[in-house]
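Hi support team,

I submitted a single chain yesterday and got back a structure, but I'm not sure I'm reading the token output correctly. Could someone confirm the output below corresponds to the sequence I sent? I've pasted both exactly as they appear in my results page.

Thanks,
R.
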Amino acid sequence: MSERTQINFSIVPDERGDEPRVYANYCAVAHTPFDFTLTFCEVMPLSERSIEEAKTEQVVRAPVRAKVVVPVQLVPNLINALKEHLRVYGESYGGGQPPKGPVH
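Hi R., thanks for writing in. Yes, this is the structure output for that exact sequence:
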């Protein structure tokens, strides 16, 4: 019978600089019973044509920049990490929340 050994470790990103940085100012969230999908898009200011199309179609299309699928078990820790970073952001830059309004 083998004996179990507990090993404590930290996981850190191995950033070698060759991964592209992706900008997104919109995130759509979907889920299945097994995972959550975060679809990050870049919404640009709308042209007159895009505004007219949005009036009739009620849709604005935004290019997908990244799609990340995470297991359900990761979601609570992700939410907690985001809350903590938002708290630190508020303490560092004044106020408790980022500025409201459009980001583009």
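A quick pointer for reading it: The chain has a mean pLDDT of 88. Let us know if anything else looks off.

Best,
Support desk
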